[in-house]
Design brief:
The structure holds 2 protein chains of 2 kinds. By secondary structure, chain A is an all-alpha fold. Chain A has one domain: ABC transporter involved in vitamin B12 uptake, BtuC, CATH 1.10.3470. Chain A contains 15 helices and 2 strands. In chain A, strands 1-2 form a two-stranded antiparallel ribbon. The two termini of chain A are about 25 Å apart. By secondary structure, chain B is α/β, with parallel strands linked by helices. Chain B folds into 2 domains: about 220 residues, Rossmann fold (3-Layer(aba) Sandwich), CATH 3.40.50.2300; about 130 residues, Response regulator (Rossmann fold, 3-Layer(aba) Sandwich), CATH 3.40.50.2300. Chain B has 12 helices and 14 strands. In chain B, the strands form 4 sheets. Chain B has a 5-stranded parallel β-sheet, sandwiched between helices. In chain B, strand 8, helix 8 and strand 9 form a beta-alpha-beta unit. In chain B, helix 3 runs parallel beside helix 4 and helix 5 crosses helix 6. Chains A and B meet through helix 2 and strand 2 of A and helix 1, helix 3, helix 4 and helix 6 of B.
């Protein structure tokens, strides 16, 4: 059996996740790795929304915030286990995405962008202002997931950083697998059809409204899970997680890596998570260099990093 | 826990290897840019300036200090990453930083796990109450500001007050902490009003307070523009009962915003605000004026309370390293905890196993605004 490009992509991703730690000199690198995976998960969701379905959202960090605060608040107020809280957050995000997605997705282009932007800001404001419940701008503690201790009892002894590297890595691989499957399924084709032309898609019988809504809900679930993972990993969360800047960061990662490409999502997340760490030595120029790299990628690789590079490679061979 | 073991091993290695390196690495992560840059910027400048100063004077234990400073932009997630990097990758022996409560809370979890001493520069009382083994802090708390105000009220014979508080983070936290200790001073709140952080008029709330029989003073817990508006409205309504503001407005900008109505307003502030008014025999006179002069000569901008927090953080740390006799995290931590009578820019610090802040009420000066300027209140 020949490997399909889908399986090849997954294999390469899995290999990177597995092999990279061999070169890690300290726990700090595991931490960076897990941050890349957490961001990559949210960005993979945005690839489904932006890259497949062609819809833009500037408020997806709002869903990350809901997922994160579910893990912080549900254990305290409802007595839920953090893992269940994570599921609750996911369900909540999906429900909210469904509710607001119905009216919002009637909008197009920058109207849609502004409406989603408003949603994100709304979530941040609620989290920051309802201080008696959420702890306000100073943030809220998140309980320990407890899975690492469980693994320890069955003989798998990982440091905290190693555990989160493995755990978030698994989530990213599962998320990528799902997104890649979707890409090649009839639903994925319908999404891509409405991306290219809504009218054409409607003409051939695609239920445009329904597909747009499902892509929005699915990407909200990705964002929510990424927020939950971040909260559980840091054991502390502030409303920044839901903030406008985080939303923009996620969209930038998506577009930089290649909006329609799942490995591009991971590459975009990796680049924007790593660069600030690499550039700390040039602190004063950090933002300039970041901006320059982004401009160059957009000018010379308008399809994004991974699609452009892979086209280049294929052209050579 | 293999992680703790490995960290202990690293710490041990560091402790023995440090003399060979002839350099003591101290880490810092402050919010030099971003929304909290008004705190983080003077902090970073102060840290860099002091390290130069200390090294020029021969360093500590005969070794030079190397400061590794990162800018977390006020983002707790970044602060956590940088704290991890400082400990795991740069292998520092201690960390100073955490400009905001959020970033501090993030860093606290990392240092507790890695067992590295950390001196926070953020305000919240939750940082040191309950006491965390590895975390200390230099800024005074809201509760101390409340106590200072109540102490002043008590000596003025004020026992019944009206309170008006902002509903933002600062206002609600201070409101809560004031009410927790107000009973100890025998003072009673007759009217308790609030306003939103963006409200443009507090006349109704103040009218309520004025109308209440027996109110002897008004206390405004707030930060930003709110207190300036309260003060203006207080002047417009011609209220005669004294007005107390919080340390949240202890800046020149407040006097300018509030205008002439601010004359006679009392508030607790730090020594550095009134450095020129301190008496020669004031214990803080020397350190406050030396820091202020050095900072202003080097940076050309006025020294602030926040820079003072960083000054005390680093000086405390270096002092502790000197007393510990070795640059080893556990020994440094123990030495910080034993700090007695250290005179800093913010106040005089006496740490103990149950007090990781170590300041008392003398850290605050009761100030009064007179003719658009600060004066020491009686």
């Amino acid at each position: 059996m020949r490997l399909s490009s889908k399986h090849l992509t997954l294999l390469i991703l899995a290999a990177i996740v597995l092999v990279a730690p061999l070169g890690f000199p300290s726990n700090f690198y595991y931490r960076i790795g897990s941050l890349i995976f957490v961001n990559g998960l949210a960005v993979t969701g945005l690839v489904i929304l932006i890259g497949f379905a062609g819809q833009i959202s500037l408020g997806h960090a709002g869903f990350a915030g809901i997922g994160a605060y579910a893990c912080a608040l549900a254990p305290q107020y409802l007595g839920l286990h953090p893992a269940l809280a994570m599921l609750l957050g996911t369900a909540l995000s999906a429900a909210i995405a469904w509710l607001i997605g119905r009216p919002i997705l009637r909008l197009q282009g920058y109207y849609l962008a502004v409406a989603t932007l408003g949603f994100g800001i709304l979530v941040t404001m609620v989290l920051a202002n309802e201080a008696p419940i959420t702890g306000g701008p100073d943030g809220h503690d998140v309980p320990e997931l407890g899975l690492r201790k469980l693994l320890e009892t069955i003989g798998i002894d990982l440091s905290n950083a190693q555990f989160w590297y493995a755990f978030t890595g698994l989530f990213l691989l599962a998320g990528a697998w799902l997104a890649l499957n979707l890409h090649d399924s009839p639903s994925g084709r319908a999404l891509r059809a409405l991306h290219d032309s809504e009218i054409a898609a409607r003409t051939v019988g695609v239920d445009v409204a329904r597909y747009k809504l499902s892509a929005f809900v699915l990407s909200a679930v990705y964002a929510s899970l990424s927020g939950s993972l971040l909260a559980l990993m840091n054991k502390f969360i502030t409303p920044d997680a839901a903030g406008f800047l985080h939303s923009i960061e996620l969209v930038t990662m998506t577009v930089l890596g290649g909006a329609s490409s799942v490995p591009g999502a991971v590459a975009g997340a990796a680049l924007l998570t790593l660069l600030p760490q690499v550039l700390t030595a040039l602190q004063d120029y950090e933002h300039m260099i970041l901006g320059l790299i982004m401009m160059l990628v957009m000018i010379f690789m308008p399809a994004g990093l991974v699609p452009s590079l892979s086209r280049l490679l294929r052209g050579r061979t | 826990m293999s992680f703790a073991l490995r960290t202990a091993a690293v710490a041990l290695l560091l402790g023995t290897a440090a003399p060979a390196l002839a350099e003591i690495k101290i880490g810092a992560t402050v919010s030099e840019t971003g929304p909290a840059s008004s705190l983080g910027d003077p902090e970073a400048k102060t840290l860099r300036m002091l390290v130069e100063e200390i090294n020029a004077a021969g360093g500590v234990l005969g070794e030079k200090i190397k400061l590794i400073a990162y800018d977390d932009a006020g983002d707790p997630n970044k602060a956590r990453t940088f704290a991890t990097r400082l400990i795991e990758d740069d292998e520092v022996v201690a960390i100073v930083g955490g400009s905001t409560t959020g970033t501090t809370m993030s860093i606290m979890k990392v240092v507790a796990e890695a067992e590295i001493p950390f001196i926070s520069l953020a305000g919240a009382i939750e940082i040191v109450d309950p006491v965390q083994t590895w975390t200390f802090k230099t800024p005074h708390t809201d509760r101390m500001a409340c106590a200072k105000i109540f102490e002043n009220m008590k000596t003025s014979g004020i026992t019944r007050i009206g309170m008006i508080s902002g509903s933002d983070g600062f206002g609600s936290s201070m409101h809560k902490q004031c009410l927790q200790i107000i009973g100890d001073y025998g003072i009673e709140v007759l009217v308790d009003e609030t306003y939103g952080p963006t409200d443009a008029d507090m006349t109704p709330q103040l009218t309520n307070i004025r109308g209440k029989e027996g109110v002897q003073a008004i206390l405004n817990a707030g930060f930003g523009q709110g207190p300036a508006i309260v003060t203006r409205n207080y002047g417009q309504l011609g209220i005669k009962t004294p007005l107390y503001q919080s340390h949240g407005v202890a800046s020149k900008a407040f006097i300018e915003l509030a205008g002439p109505a601010s004359n006679g307003v009392k508030l607790p502030g730090t020594a550095i605000l009134v450095a020129n008014l301190l008496k020669q025999d004031d214990p803080q006179y020397g350190v406050v004026n030396a820091y202020k002069k050095a900072y202003e000569d080097k940076n050309g901008s006025p020294a602030s309370t926040f820079g003072g927090y960083a000054h005390d953080g680093l000086r405390l740390l270096v002092d502790a390293i000197g007393r510990a006799g070795k640059a080893e995290p556990k020994a440094i931590r123990d030495a910080i905890e034993q700090t007695k009578g250290y005179v800093g820019v913010t106040g005089i610090v006496n740490m103990s196993p149950t007090d990781h802040l170590g300041l008392d009420l003398t850290a605050f000066r009761m100030l009064e605004i007179k003719d658009g300027n600060w004066a020491l209140a009686q």
